[in-house]
Every structure is written in C-alpha cells, then in structure tokens.
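Batch manifest, entry 17 of 40.
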Amino acid sequence: MMHPIQQLNTSITRRNFFGKMAQGIGSMALGTLLSTELIGRQAPTTAKGIQSLPHFAPKAKRIIYLFQNGAPSHVDLFDYKPALEKWHGTQIPNDLVEGKRFSTMTGKQQNRPLISARGKFAQHGDSGSWVSDLMPETAKVVDDLCFIKSMYTESVNHAPAITFFLTGSEQPGRPSMGSWLTYGLGTTSEDLPAFVAMTSRDKEASCGQIFYDYYWGSGFLPTQFQGVKFRGGGDPVLYLKDPPGMSRTIRRELLDDLEQLNHINLDRYGDPEINTRIAQYEMAYKMQMSVPELTDFSNEPKHILNMYGPDVHRKGSFAYNCLMARRLAERGVRFVQCMHAGWDQHRNLNYQLQIQCKDTDAPSAALVKDLKQRGMLEDTLVIWGGEFGRTPFLQGKIEDYRNWGRDHHPYVFTLWMAGAGIKPGISYGTSDDFGFSPVENKVHVHDFQATIMHLLGIDHELFTFKHQGRRYRLTDVHGHVVQGILA
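Output type: structure tokens
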C-alpha cells in the first residue's frame, strides 16, 4: 500500500497546484489591505501603554471609582435645601417641571408635592460642608472631599445613564473609562490586571439593578484592556487552582509552548486578539500566586478592619470591596471600579435609604482615611457617586407614608471626589432652592470625564482611537476640564 503522503503528492495536478497558489497570494493581498484599516493599529503592551502618554505631568497615578448604582438622593444626603422643609407637602412650581422628562413612574403623575430631607443636615469640619446624619462617617472626612453639587446628565433611566458615565455614550459598545486609561497609560502591576471591577448590592435586594459586562468592557479597543471582574463569592477569579497532577513547572512549560503557537498565528494573521490571548494566559498564571495573597486579610490590623465596618469579612459586600480596592491600588492596579446597587428608592425611601447609607457610609469614609494615612491619597483619585439624582418631589401619594419614594432626576445631583489633584474641603457648583436644576458652575458628564483624564496627565481631546474610519474619544466631541476643583 502506498504511503498517504506519497499518495497526496501523486494526486496533485497542475490545475490544483496553481489554484492553491492563487488562494495563497489572494490571502496575503487581503491581509495587507486589512492590516491597518480594519484590524486597527497594533495594541500597545499592557505594561507600557502608548508612548506619547501622558501628555503632561499627572497628579493621579490610579483611580478608585465607588459607583453607586441606582442614584443616591442628593437632597437627602449632601445638598441641603431648607426650602424643602418650608414647602413640604406643597406642589413643586410648575415652571420647574414643565417640559421636563421623567421616568414612566412619575411621567404622568398629576400631584408632585415637595418633601423634606429624610435625614437631618448639619455642617461639619473646618470646611463647614453640609452632610445628612444618614452619613455620619462621611461627615468626618469632609475636609478631604470635594463635593460637586451641580452635576447633570442626559438620560432618565439607569442602564443608559450608567453607560454614559462609564463610556461617554448612552449606547453600549464604547470602551469603558478604565479600558481607555489602561490602554493609554498601561499598568505598574506585574502580577495583577491593570483594571479590576467588583460589584455588590444591598442585602435586602430591594431593587432590580443589573450589572452588565459592558460597564467594564473594552468596546472597540483590544479586549486585553477590558476590566477583570472579581467575583463576590468563592475564588475571586475562576480556575485559579491547577487541577490535580498539574505542577507549577508543568503549567509553565505548557504555557510557554502555547505562547509559541500563538505567536506563530500572530505573525501569520496580525490579529490583535491573539495578543490579548497571550497576555491573558500570562496574567492568569501570575494571578494564581498573587490573588490568594491579595485576598488574605489576616495581616490587616484590627483597627483597620473595624474602620471598614462589620461587613468587611463578608465577601461580595461593599465594605469588603472597598478594602480590596485599597489593597489592589497599593499593588499597582491602575483602575478599580466598585459598583454597588440598591439606591433606587422609588417606594421605600423612608426605610431603605437609611439601610443603604449604613452599608456604604463607613466603608467609603474608611477608604479615604486608609489611603491618607498610608500616603496614597495624594496620588490616588477616589470618586463616589451615581448616574443621576432623585426628584425633590414625591413619587406616590403623600398620605401613603410607607410607600414614599423619589424618582430619577438627571437635571442636577451631587457626587464627591477626593485625593490626587483635587481641591479638598470645598463644594463646587450650586443648585436652585429646591435642588431641581443647577444654577452655578454646571458640570456635565463629559466635563467630569475630561477632568479625570486631565488629572491623569491626559488631554482628552488628543487621546483618540480610530475605529471604522472615525477617531473616537471618551468624551465624544464635548467636555471641558473643571478648573475650579483642581488643587
């Protein structure tokens, strides 16, 4: 019997040979056409980022974003409005709400009575910042915080509003802020991802907020720069442990061989996703050693654990994630995104808001104090806030006290920032007497994003990525740096 290879050789005809040659030449020509326009430019390495960045000396080296899904009520927590107490129970002036868009829950509501703040406000610190007694621990660190009380946005629903804050667009598909920054600036961590996302929710599961993967996705950037989601239970990352019989040496040899094969394909096709695969295999190998140490709180002093609160030992809690954020930051992770759901008080304002504050107040303040005492706050930017605010008027009927609520409010709301390059102990911008609209120093979402990039040494107008024939940026075609909050 003839050997299979010999049989193949004898079966190749002249027509067959030239047909295969034509396919090969055609593939090379197509690869040349696609290499720069459709595939995009070669992604920078995770470690180095883009050579032209930063554009100028940065104030911040890293960011911890404490995103409060569902929208905290600014008029109940940070934006004190005595007029709400004075006019409690009376209709909000019609000229304020006329022509404004609200969610379907109050869009057709005829009566819109103003209601007073659910907590009691007082001034705190040398700065005299107004804070509700629902946030007692945050009140103790106000001299380190900058409150922006004139934020406004464009969407009245959660998912598009969150997407807008994190990606610069209400539609999914754009890179998230963490992906932009790690793509441009790279990482300083050798054995942890540059961008980590963690999620938590209120224990009562009082609202149906969903965490979509595109909140930390890389969009049209190479997937090498998407956020790595740490789970709230069990191992933070799946498959950290090798299977039985697989030694560390064997794993290393297997990955080395696999990398060689991937490089052959990378040279052949030029697909940047192959680069991503190589980087992810290497990072996973390193994380098998780094993550168990990262999640071991046994070396944390007791007074530090107490500062974050009793929930700090419960994996997946906001307190646990805040301490993890500090540990990630000190190990070189550039962007940590902690997302906590439960602020959507449509019909449970009078009891759930207090519970939500209790779960998040101490850990947020503890993170600021912890970073400060370690000397890390001076180059770490901490951000606390949601996707919009809540209406100063009531959702529901005023006689139905048990089911009081506040609807979504994109027209003005409050967030705070602390740390690298931010002027501490100030309140920037103001809203009107009812906390309905901004009246001084308005700050749009794109202004907020431009300011964050500025603090990292990036001119947001110059940092772009070409995709499908157009140059995109985080701030779209908008945004101005908010100079008034810069130290």
